[in-house]
Design goal:
Layout: E1 4-8, H1 12-24, E2 28-32, H2 35-44, E3 49-52, H3 61-71, E4 77-81, H4 86-94, E5 99-102, H5 107-122, E6 128-131, E7 134-137, E8 142-145, E9 148-150, H6 154-165, E10 171-172, H7 173-181, H8 191-204, E11 212-215, E12 219-222
Parallel strand pairs: 1-2, 1-3, 3-4, 4-5
Antiparallel strand pairs: 6-7, 7-8, 8-9, 10-12, 11-12
Length: 226
Amino acid sequence: MAGQILVIEDEPGIVDFLERGLRAQGFEVTSAMDGVSGAEAAVNQEVDLVVLDLMLPGRSGLDVLGAVRDAKPGLPVIVLTALGEVEHRVAGLDAGAVDYLTKPFSLTELAARIRAQLRAAANVPRTTLTAGDIEVNLITREVRRGGELVRLSTTEFELLSYLMHNRGHVLSREQILRAVWGYEYDPGTNVVDVYIGYLRRKLRAQGNNAPIVTVRSVGYRLDASN
């Protein structure tokens, strides 16, 4: 089972061991070596699971865990640390970790626990979509950018949701028209372009840019890196 794993750990030897070992198990791995950059990566990057050490420079592991829970409640975090006492386990789990391993650890066991958490996450219906600092709540139908509410019409919301579901992929005008408006493409209409313009203006008002990229002669893409 593939998955994008973020390792937040300050010991270079362990980082190297985890990166090589988890990649050999089929995972994609990125890493951060302090609490500040780790929290930023977990919140802003597209990751499926975080492996987190509790003893980090710059920002404690528990503080990082709290930031992740606030920004991405559904993102699973496995704590991996030398702090094995019961009170430390309880603190990590109470802070929102889904699992807890103590050092020294078995890479095979860690990989198995990661796969188990990714399977569990895959079976939970998604209620929010995120891309960078943009968050779409599919239940309340609220859109926020950088924590600030962005007020969208019903059609604008459906358009953004469709782009978010397919972030990183180029979508043709025909695909967008069919998915959002429910009818086949009419070469004489520019309704898709008009609503993309509406959406860009509203998103730009709450951030530095609107991450909807025009792909010439094809359509549009929501830039997953934003």
